[in-house]
Specification:
The longest helix has 9 residues. This protein is mainly beta. The model has no long low-confidence stretch (mean pLDDT 97). It is built from 3 helices and 14 strands. It has one domain: Roll (Pnp Oxidase, Chain A). Helices cover 10% and strands 40% of the residues. The protein has a 7-stranded antiparallel β-sheet. Strands 1-13-14 form a 3-stranded antiparallel β-sheet, with no helix packed on it. The chain binds flavin mononucleotide.
């Protein structure tokens, strides 16, 4: 029997580590789960207006998004726990170092293997939140996680956010070929 429960949700979510620079040039990073890709080249992320990251994105209109990985999980969680507005050495504390992107005015976190570079298309401000819609203008990937010129998810140690269990889960084995396994019903 199917139960009718109280609240709906979508899960899992990606674990996105957003990199920005402040007005003083100081790099910041935060963890965001309320985001995803829209079509082929755009993303949307919902950010609270209380975050330094939100201020930095409004200022620069450019940012990076790295995928959290299992081997950097504590650091990825930490940047979601404290604000760069209050902890000025936030990135140092969790062992993150950065290199400025050559495509956008935003930091690429050296310890995370895959990062997309993003430019704001639209900022929608409502209910003390900013919904950021941005274009993906570049991609940086460590050569160790690239196979035949493409990011190889099996090499990343990618994690996702379980919104029900409030935990990170490792991305596992391939379950079947997309646009393909259903062909058996043709
Ligand atoms: C798993 C996880 C997911 C989060 N997702 C979001 C999110 O999607 N949007 C948001 O505004 N804050 C989110 N946060 C909270 C911010 O990452 C957190 O408040 C952070 O300290 C903000 O840092 P900043 O002020 O340096 O930008 C999340 C935190 C965690 C741990």
């Amino acid at each position: 029997m199917k139960l009718s429960l109280e609240k709906g949700f979508i899960t899992p979510h990606p674990v996105l580590i957003i990199g920005t620079y402040g007005a003083d040039g100081r790099p910041d990073a935060m963890n965001a789960a309320w985001g995803g890709q829209i079509g082929g080249s755009q993303i949307s992320i919902s950010l609270s207006n209380t975050h330094l990251t939100t201020d930095n994105i409004k200022l620069n209109r450019e940012f990076t998004v790295a995928f959290a990985t299992a081997d950097q999980l504590a650091a990825c969680d930490y940047v979601g726990l404290v604000s760069g507005a209050k902890v000025s050495d936030k990135l140092d504390r969790c062992g993150f170092t950065v290199t400025k992107s050559d495509k956008v005015n935003a930091p690429v976190i050296d310890q995370l293997p895959v990062t997309i570079e993003c430019r704001v298309i639209e900022l929608q401000d409502e209910f003390n939140e900013t919904r950021v819609v941005a274009e993906i203008v570049g991609l940086k990937a460590d050569e160790e996680v690239v196979t035949d010129g493409k990011v190889d998810i099996s090499k990343l140690g990618l994690v996702v956010y379980d919104t029900v269990g409030k935990c990170y889960r490792a991305v596992g084995d391939v379950a079947g070929g997309a646009w393909n396994i259903g062909r058996k019903f043709d």
